[in-house]
Design goal:
single chain; 6 helices; mainly alpha; disordered N terminus
């Protein structure tokens, strides 16, 4: 899983961590709180992009759509993969999973795992083509800093809410 994807799934001041731990609504619709969180993270990254990377106005104008595409496609990959794995978990917990159902879901997850990182790589390469090597490094650092900050905020939110992430 891409680190920035985790960042995008979690939000600054994510609020009630229990809401983040809930299953997706029926039909795969995004919860309003999660959609708002994505917007907040996108706005934060965009507002810090030019200064953090030392971009010229021309580079910044060209970088915005590339970064938006990168973030959107990472997010879509993560959310769709999460939906498929949750569906597998639901079927397995119910005890009625057929081999055909499991094989179909596994095929879908494997296809996502092949395509998602490849799209991310292509998007990063397109962004990198616009940036100097130093700016590329600064972008990677910005991603890591945002991820780190998000993990801290989500950890605090979970502590306040008395919840833990699945698998913790």
């Amino acid at each position: 899983m891409s680190r920035l994807l985790l960042v995008l799934v979690l939000a600054f001041g994510a609020g009630d961590a229990r809401a983040w731990a809930q299953e997706e609504p029926a039909g795969g619709a995004e919860r309003p709180a999660r959609a708002e969180a994505f917007k907040m993270v996108d706005a934060y990254v965009m507002s810090n992009l030019q200064e953090s990377l030392g971009l010229s106005d021309e580079q910044f104008a060209k970088a915005i759509p590339l970064v938006k595409k990168l973030q959107t496609e990472r997010r879509e990959y993560y959310l769709e993969r999460t939906r498929k794995v949750r569906e597998m978990r639901r079927l397995l917990r119910q005890g009625g999973a057929t081999e055909a159902q499991v094989l179909d879901l596994l095929r879908q997850v494997k296809a996502l795992d092949a395509d998602g990182p490849a799209r991310t790589q292509r998007n990063l390469e397109a962004l990198d083509a616009l940036l100097t090597p130093v700016q590329q490094a600064k972008f990677r650092v910005l991603e890591m800093e945002v991820e780190h900050r998000m993990r801290e905020l989500v950890g605090r939110a979970r502590s306040r809410a008395g919840t833990r992430a699945p698998g913790e």
